[in-house]
Amino acid sequence: VGVLNVHTVEQREFTAGDVELLLVIGRLIAGALHQARLHRQLVARERAHENFVEQVIEAQELERRRLAGDIHDGISQRLITLSYRLDAATRATDAAAMAEQLGMARELVDLTLQEARAAISGLRPPVLDDLGLAGGLASLARSIGQIDVKVELADTRLPDHIELALYRIAQECLQNVVKHAGASTARLMFAVDDDTARLEIVDDGVGFDTFEHPLGSDEMGGYGLLSMAERAEIVGGRLNIRSRPGAGTAVTATIPLPNVADEPAV
After folding, report:
1. Cα(first)–Cα(last) distance of the chain, in Å?
2. Which end of the chain is more exposed for a tag (fewer CB within 10 A), N or C?
3. Domain that holds residue 1
4. Confidence band of 237 (pLDDT split at 50, 70, 90)
5. Percentages of the chain per state (helix, strand, coil), in multiples of 5
6. pLDDT digits over 54-104, tens only?
7. Does pTM top 0.85 for this prediction?
8. Do residue 32 and residue 57 come from a single domain?
9. What CA–CA distance (Å, rounded) separates 135 from 65?
10. Residue 97 neighbours by CB distance under 10 Å
11. What is the DSSP-derived secondary structure letter of residue 14?
């Protein structure tokens, strides 16, 4: 909304032609301002996307280094020691010595298995395999102690890569609610309708102007919300954000699901 003030040097009334001309000029100015705002938003989005790509590459490299370190320093070293124990067991001269070496070998197997599971859990949350997406989201909601999170969850299993994407989106979104929204309550919903899965997180926080602060800006949680949008797009979906200053925020991820049947909610 804007105001166009027009004045004349000589005092006179504006004619109908004057008014029509001024309306045309006003529309042209409004269109130009709107295009300028859209351009700024596009530039900000492109800049945020470039930053996001850089951060993703850096995060992937750090994750590879972490995994390599965990495997080298933990799992591989235990396997080497396990090999020594088994060799010692084969060279044992009596049953007691063999049993001792085999007992220590068994302990090493258990420790190695625990470390392998810990490394795997860093890539995919074990709760998804144990409880499914609905159970994982419920567990995630309970883990957010700073706000009251109410849940409405469909007990429907989805392909692994989609469950992981939706879980990570919910995880990042709830973290943003805690860090940026200043909310006291939030609602987490997951539903499957026809061939579409929908995840929605609504909070009663401070909200923001989505037009003035494009996706990826610091006011919207920066890297976090852009990461959520990218996760949705990778699995063929989209992320929609609705918010107004003082009216909270609603984040909705919609993912197409061919050949997925509805199941009752819990």
Report:
1. 45
2. N
3. 1-123
4. very high
5. 60, 15, 25
6. 776 776 677 677 677 667 766 777 788 888 888 888 988 889 888 988 888
7. no
8. yes
9. 31
10. 13
11. P
